[in-house]
Amino acid sequence: MKAIWKDKIIAEAPKEDLIYIEQNWYFPLSSVKQEFLRPSDTPYTCPWKGVCQYFDVGEGEDWSKDDAWSYPHPLATAIDRVKKDFSGYVAFWRDVTVTE
Fold first, then answer.
1. Structural domains in the chain?
2. Distance separating alpha carbons of residues 5 and 11, to the nearest angstrom
3. Residue 66 zone, left/alpha/beta (φ > 0; ψ -120 to 50; rest)
4. I need a surface site. Which of 10, 14, 53, 94 has the fewest CB within 10 A?
5. Which pLDDT score is estimated for 22?
6. pLDDT grade, residue 88 (50/70/90)?
7. Per-residue model confidence (pLDDT) at position 58
């Protein structure tokens, strides 16, 4: 599967390596091109997953605010619920298209 931002592949991994949570595909951190992410200061805590880290997606002077997110240390109950450890996995939305 691929995550595409403005015709650039910013993440790519086999579907079996991704985790599907609440209609979002989470990519392993190792499959994400880090140069297209920068940490955002947008705060968010999911009631059942825990503290979220948002990222802006882009390059140079062109950035899409909060188009990616991750749970660096999800709650243990969330890992139990998902049945997989999704610590550090990255999901995308808005300006990023995820496709097979």
1. 2-99 (2.170.150.40)
2. 9
3. left
4. 14
5. 95
6. very high
7. 98
